[in-house]
Write a structure and sequence with these properties.
The protein is built from nine helices and six strands; from the N terminus they run αβααββααβααββαα. The chain has 428 residues and is α+β, with helices and mostly antiparallel strands. It has a domain of 299 residues: Up-down Bundle (Outer membrane efflux proteins (OEP)), CATH 1.20.1600.10. The longest helix has 68 residues. The two termini are 44 Å apart.
Length: 428
């Protein structure tokens, strides 16, 4: 074994076995995109609470202190003679304390604030569905990376078996050449085959190490790849061999992407109602109590209650433009929802077809592997008895290596196709 291969094998030597369920749990705990999605959902919920604040009473406290002059300022009104002051202005200053407590409450604004709050709530629910979408996407990514690592591990086994077989053929060739039953070219060809097999072995070991590094990234883990993956496979998905329509119906009901679109449509409908509310007036009530004076121990109280109505009779067609924008945005969201529903159907149909094709390919690959093993067994028997030659033996070994690798790839394709169908059905 070459120093490079020894280093790769030592680097890839596992200290423990990682199961698929452990990999999925690691992703739930450590994947940064899931933490980001959770934070985005919390931010959307906070924005909904912000929008609700306009419906609740508003209580404000104001305290002020100034030091000012108190000179008389004469004024004149039409038809009225203002009194004159004989006191000359001075720079003498006095205290002015003032405290004011104001309570205000929106009474009605034709649904502007209410519908704005409802729209924010629907948007927050849509963000929660986005969080589920990211969870499902992350879980699918982990499954795909796990099955890729398992396939890479199996390819290392194929490469190891190939090296062992080629080394055994080399030992046979050396003996046959020494006794003169095989030409020297048989030895040269066997040496080449062993060298090529070791190259493939090095690449397979490196591929397995790389696959585990990619699995770490999918799990959101920054750490060692000092583990081996288990033999876990994706079990058959319920309904994978059944009719398409029940699967599509299940996916439409479960996919969080579609739920998010439906919630955004509802949010936009509420936003449209809020925009139309601007055509009407806004009615609010308030109550204010205050105390003021030049000294803290000599304050004068005052209070007042009132109501205000404000109506923007013409705002440069702003309200009409806002309503038009909201209508157009709603139409766009409805169209996006329809497109997403069509995409869900396509995802399910493609995944189901992929599962069928992968299962059939796996059966064919297993048959090819069985035949390749028989071919190599017969070729080795012919070679040992001197009937066959090194070329025939090499072709048989290549056929076995190719069939074994093809069988690994077919098994990987079955698991990933089922994972894709699982994902298309909206399952985490």
């Amino acid at each position: 074994m070459t120093p490079v291969l020894v280093a790769l094998v030592m680097a890839a030597a596992p200290a423990k076995t990682l199961t698929l369920e452990q990999a999925l749990e690691n992703a739930r705990l450590h994947q940064p995109t899931l933490r980001q999605a959770a934070a985005d959902a919390q931010a959307a919920k906070a924005r909904a609470d912000e929008a609700r604040s306009g419906l609740l009473p508003q209580l404000n406290l104001g305290l002020s202190y100034v030091r000012r002059t108190n000179n008389f300022v004469p004024s004149s009104l039409t038809g009225i003679s203002a009194p004159t002051s004989t006191t000359a202005p001075t720079f003498y200053t006095v205290n002015a304390f003032n405290g004011q407590l104001t309570l205000s409450q929106l009474i009605w604004d034709f649904g502007q604030t209410w519908n704005r709050w409802k729209a924010s709530e629907a948007s927050a629910e849509a963000s929660a569905q986005d969080e589920q979408t990211r969870l499902q996407t992350s879980m699918f990514g982990v499954r795909t990376a796990f099955f890729a690592a398992r396939a890479a591990r199996d390819l290392v086994k194929v490469a190891d078996d190939t090296v062992a077989n080629q080394q055994r053929h080399l030992d046979q060739a050396k003996g046959f050449v020494q006794v003169g039953t095989q030409p020297e070219i048989a030895l040269a060809q066997s040496l080449t085959a062993v060298a090529n097999a070791k190259v493939q072995q090095i690449q397979a070991v490196n591929g397995y190490a790389t696959a585990r590094a990619q699995l770490n990234q999918a799990m959101g883990i920054e750490g060692s790849t000092d583990y081996d993956v288990s033999d876990d496979r994706m079990l058959p998905v319920e309904g994978e061999n059944g009719e398409l329509e029940p699967l599509v119906d299940a996916a439409v009901a479960a996919r969080p992407e579609l739920a998010a679109y439906r919630l955004r449509v509802r949010a936009q409908q509420d936003s449209l109602s809020s925009a139309r509310g601007a055509y009407g007036p806004t009615l609010a009530a308030s109550m204010t109590g205050s105390e003021g004076g030049p000294f803290l121990n000599h304050m004068v109280p005052n209070w007042q209650v009132g109501a205000t109505i404000q109506w923007n009779l013409f705002g440069g067609l702003l309200t009409q433009s806002t309503v038009n924008e909201a209508v157009a945005t709603l139409d766009s969201l409805v169209a996006q929802t329809d497109a997403e529903r069509q995409q869900v159907r396509l995802d399910v149909e493609q995944a189901q077809l992929a599962v069928h094709a992968a299962v059939e390919s796996l059966a064919a690959a297993e048959e090819a592997l069985k035949n390749a093993k028989d071919q190599l067994r017969l070729a080795e028997g012919r070679y040992e008895t001197g009937i066959g030659n090194i070329i025939e033996l090499g072709d048989a070994q290549l056929a076995l290596t190719t069939a074994a690798a093809q069988r690994v790839q077919a098994d990987f394709t079955v698991s990933t196709a089922r994972a894709q169908l699982w994902h298309a059905l909206g399952k985490p």
